[in-house]
Amino acid sequence: xxxxxxxxxxxxxxxxxxxxxxxxxxxxxxxxxxxxxxxxxxxxxxxxxxxxxxxxxxxxxxxxxxxxxxxxxxxxxxxxxxxxxxxxxxxxxxxxxxxxxxxxxxxxxxxxxxxxxxxxxxxxxxxxxxxxxxxxxxxxxxxxxxxxxxxxxxxxxxxxxxxxxxxxxxxxxxxxxxxxxxxxxxxxxxxxxxx
Length: 195
Prior knowledge:
alpha/beta
């Protein structure tokens, strides 16, 4: 009887974990940010504690697609560079016409705060399409800037650096290897301006 009770308790905890997973998924607009390692780890720990027949190793590794912004130059799992820039780098880039700064926030955010000075505005969901499909002429007419080549240094910015980090990863896969992420984004810019 106690074995069945353990199974019922374990099932209940697994069910709770799936509710957490559903909550996280429903509150994340981008599906590739779901912390799957957390969910798998939680399920394994819950199951192994109650039933004692699922071996859990201390060095489990699960593949995730999150962007790590812990160092200024590292290689990610897909062998793309994670290149980060900070406030002082933005100040220098604003004076350099060969560098393209793209603010990837949504129109509503730009309307509220204005775009990052010296940047052009392309919403996150449109960056890849714009770089791939807009002709040189159309890009120049729309943004009053030359369309970037694969060698152009591009700095991406958003509100906090997370969305721009995801766009950075996407365009690096397209061959834009000099795509940088402004860590801290608009929040960092705004706070640094107050100092």
